[in-house]
Automatic annotation (TrEMBL):
The lineage of its organism: Bacteria, Pseudomonadati, Pseudomonadota, Alphaproteobacteria, Hyphomicrobiales. This is Glutathione S-transferase. Residues 11-90 form the GST N-terminal domain. CDD domains: GST_C_family, GST_N_family. Pfam families: GST_C_3 (PF14497), GST_N_3 (PF13417). GO terms for biological process: glutathione metabolic process. GO terms for molecular function: glutathione transferase activity. The keyword Metal-binding does not apply. Coiled coil: none annotated. It comes from Saliniramus fredricksonii. Transmembrane segments: none annotated. Residues 97-239 form the GST C-terminal domain. The keyword Membrane does not apply.
């Protein structure tokens, strides 16, 4: 039996997200690429709203509420759900062969776990979330050693991304997949905060320019955090 919070009544699919949450951005890109129509609810995870916690007690973004009311928490789970519920003949962002799916999942984990732990988790928390959280709850000035660590770590991630693109058309192979969208979502946050060293690897930069040029990316490039404008190049695909 499903837990009591597993379904709610909705008119159409809803995504509970935070604009500069990289995991939320990943699912926004996925839905835009797949043509999944959404209503959006902006969440501030640090506020831990009671009604949001009722959807997912972990209190993390994103949370997807399907049109039939099924609650799907977490970017990886949402991505798998969207793939599994595609009708035959509809576009998919996971390969059909087992080896291809393994590679996509490996790279999704690389960015949603490793890259997040070493780069975006530090930058978004220190430069964005802490601006809005009370000092009593851990808010305040950013931890500069953490930011410097993230800025150092992003360089080798860009070199690895460039290495992959030198071997393949897209990150996981010959077609655009969840791997590209996960990587682009995380890098878009780094880029918004002005911490992407695009001179580190030209191939990685060219791949990201391709991603920024896709129609699915337009909504992300229009995002703005109050009181924190992105660099001038952020919304320009030809940066």
């Amino acid at each position: 039996m499903l837990p009591s919070f597993a379904r709610v009544s909705v008119a159409m699919a809803i995504l509970h997200h935070y604009p500069l949450c990289p995991h939320s951005r990943f699912i926004r890109l996925v839905c835009a690429e797949l043509g999944v129509a959404l209503d959006f609810v902006e969440e501030r995870p640090w506020e831990r709203r009671e009604s949001f916690l009722a959807l997912d007690p972990a209190g993390n973004t994103p949370v997807f509420v399907a049109a039939d009311g099924l609650i799907v928490p977490g970017a990886g789970t949402i991505a798998e759900y969207l793939d599994e519920t595609r009708e035959p003949g509809m576009e998919r962002l996971m390969p059909g062969d087992p080896a291809g799916r393994v590679e996509v999942r490996r790279l999704m984990a690389w960015f949603s776990e490793k890259f997040f732990a070493e780069v975006t988790g530090y930058l978004v928390h220190e430069k964005v979330y802490k601006r809005f959280v009370p000092a009593s709850a851990g808010g305040g000035p950013p931890d500069m050693p953490a930011i410097r660590a993230a800025r150092a770590n992003v360089r080798y991630h860009l070199r690895y991304l460039g290495y992959l693109i030198n071997q393949r058309k897209w990150l996981a192979g010959d077609a655009l997949t969840y791997a590209d969208l996960a990587a682009a979502a995380h890098l878009s946050c780094v880029d918004y905060l002005g911490d992407a060293p695009w001179n580190e690897d030209e191939t990685a930069r060219d791949w990201y320019a391709r991603m920024k040029s896709r129609p699915a990316f337009r909504a992300l490039l229009a995002d703005r955090v109050p009181g924190m404008a992105p660099p001038d190049h952020y919304a320009n695909p030809d940066f």
